[in-house]
Amino acid sequence: MNRIQSIMCCVIGCCLPAVSIAQISPDQLAKIEAAVPKTARVVPQKLRKVLIWNTPFMDKSPHKGYTIPHSELAFRLMGQRTKAYEPIVSDDVAMFLPDNLRKFDAIVLNNSDGPWIRPTEKDMGKFISIGTDIDIVEKILRQSLLDWVASGHGIVAFHFAIGANTHWPQFQELLGAAYSGHPWNEEVGVKIEDPTHPLLAAFGGKDF
To answer: Which 3-state string (H, E, C) describes 74-130?
Structure first.
């Protein structure tokens, strides 16, 4: 079995949807596999469960074919290799109900754009026990996420995730950012404020 075949087996083993596999070239698979660390920089105190949240509006997403499947795979492999967390991938808004959300320690918003906190008509069949009013269900889902974060859980907004839920001001406040566009193309400086932090260790304390 060659390297690319072994990567494909790993991808299939972690249940990446076939459509996502088709969107990742062998060369890209190899690069992702090489970039993902094999061990955690810090020994995890316990195994955590992380929700990797893809947009339920994938057909309308500008990143459906070249960013979402790649980062999903990277986050999956990172959890499986380092044993720091169990990755669970979903685009089901019912995951944000309180009973479901409390199972997770953190959420990675993987380019999850669109008004995903608002259930679609198709989604409403999952909320029969709550009612049939979309506005009420959305209010419950909103509060569920806010309460979950307020209780000390973690949330990571990756790339175009800041373009989501533009109808919900508290979501933008939660992330501390909102998408307005990217008509510019220029270099920016990044300053490493805390070089001892595990997430910044890879930069060796150097600004760039």
So the answer is: HHHHHHHHHCCEEEEEECCHHHHCHHHHCCCCEEEEECCCECCCCCCCCHHHHHCCC
* Rg of the chain (C-alpha set): 18
Q: Is the predicted pLDDT of residue 121 greater than 50, yes or no? A: yes
Burial class (CB in 10 A: 0-12, 13-18, 19+), 76: buried
Do strands 154-158 and 85-90 pair parallel, antiparallel, or not at all (unpaired)? unpaired
Spatial distance between the Cα atoms of 145 and 157, rounded to a whole number of angstroms: 14
Rounded to an integer, the average pLDDT of 20-45 is 86
Please tell me the distance from the alpha carbon of residue 16 to that of residue 21, in angstroms, as a whole number.
7
Residue 86 has pLDDT above 60, yes or no: yes
Mean pLDDT confidence for 139-167: 95
Per-residue pLDDT tens over the stretch 97-108:
999 999 999 999
Alpha-carbon distance of 105 to 132, in angstroms, equals 30
Q: With 0-12 CB in 10 A as exposed, 13-18 as middle and 19+ as buried, what is 127?
A: buried
Query: How many other C-beta atoms are found inside a 10 Å radius of the C-beta of residue 137?
Result: 22
Rounded to the nearest 5°, which phi and psi values hold at 50?
Answer: -120, 130
